[in-house]
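During the second half of the funding period, the structural biology subgroup turned its attention to how the target accommodates small molecules. The most pressing case was iron/sulfur cluster, which had performed well in the primary screen but for which no bound structure existed. We therefore specified the complex as follows and requested a full 3D prediction, including the ligand pose.
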Amino acid sequence: MSDASEFSGKSRTVPEIQAKIDSGEALVLTAAEISEKVRAGEEVRFEDVDVVTTATRGIMSGTYAVLSFKVSEPDSFVRASEVLLNGVPAVPGPCPNERLGILDLVVLGTAHSETDPRYGGGHLFRELVEGKSVRVDVTTSDGETFTAETSLAEMPFARLYATRHAFRNYKAFVNPGKDSLNTIFHALPFEGEFRELTFCGCGELNPIENDPGLETIGIGTRVLLNGAEGFVTGSGTRSSPKNPNLAGFADLHGMKPGYMGGFITSGGPEIINTWAVPIPVMHPGILDNILKVDREIPLQLVDVAGRLPLCEISYGDVWDGADLKVRYKPEDCLECESCDVDGVCPMEAIKRTPEGKIKHNRGLCFNCGLCVSRCKGGAFVAKLGSVRCTTGGCMREIKVTLRQSDRARAVKAAEELKKEVLSGKFRITAPVEKIRFP
Ligand code: SF4
Ligand code: SF4
């Protein structure tokens, strides 16, 4: 970690940066804009940037929500012992709200519906934010059952908590075994014998990748979590100085559905979240990491069974030259009798109309790329690239078939944060405490 005193005469405090923003003189750039300049060979100096907006969007299992709402009239039951929200099990409590007709619930982002194998906590949170109504099935402590309906508008308290988000850099996965296997790191059974590769992480855009020493990100840092203002509360589970991640929270009422949702893996439904974090450039040392591009950021390729390390690659291997967005070309669709991507898309973004046409819902699409390798007619298009890895004396070229991070929307999240910072809507905060590791 660099020390501001090393850069005498060249430092700014967070309040000074905020004052510069308020006077309309601040230079705010997204991490993607900085990387573009670096790739073009341009020099980016301390004087050229006051704030960098960073972001990441991906599967982040460590998520739960606390919801509190009225479900019936006071004294109509003593307390709830079991609750399902659209079939997703919730934990009643911790407060029992005895005889008040009010539920306090903890809902895990990775909870799976008891009635629909393609629905989980992530889907539920997105539908709440979309304003949809939710079915509530309650079993009371007296063994009575009843059903009600609710929506986010009827919840005075609905907060999303992160227990492990925005990992500095995650991993890439292959299955070296003979048999395919079900895992949360693939949307289909993961094919064996190094036939495909999946990975997580937004590389050079990731907030902690831009501030790995957590010099500017700390307890109390204001962030956008799924588009809503929230705060960092510390480091998350399995966080370490080498691979830190963040814990935090934000109110579901302010979230944007396009940044969140469920993602169906062959290990069951998972949850997607998006973070956007400002990095105030307080001294030149902070720029060192901001100027790093994907090829300088290591990514470990591991065996998906047991996470045994196999190769050291970089985020440049998976993002350089790759298309961030997946496109659908209806003119190339063969209208096959049995479509290989309808019902397989982890976001349910591909649907067949009653007339047999395939529709691609861009608003739902996560740009994971799975349809690119599975569509028979090549109607789904994106360059996903491949990775070279030498293991056991054998060099292999392994195709990327699934990305568990949506960099296109991470870019958008960083751009939105930049606009909010410049307009003064989003205020930069200095941490109240440094993050310490368990
Ligand atoms: S597999 Fe591809 S080409 Fe065949 S119907 Fe589906 S989208 Fe069209
Ligand atoms: S890239 Fe294809 S498989 Fe992935 S979410 Fe989008 S439409 Fe679905």
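Two results from this model are relevant to the next phase. The chain has a mean pLDDT of 95. Residues 52-60+166-322+383-423 form one domain.
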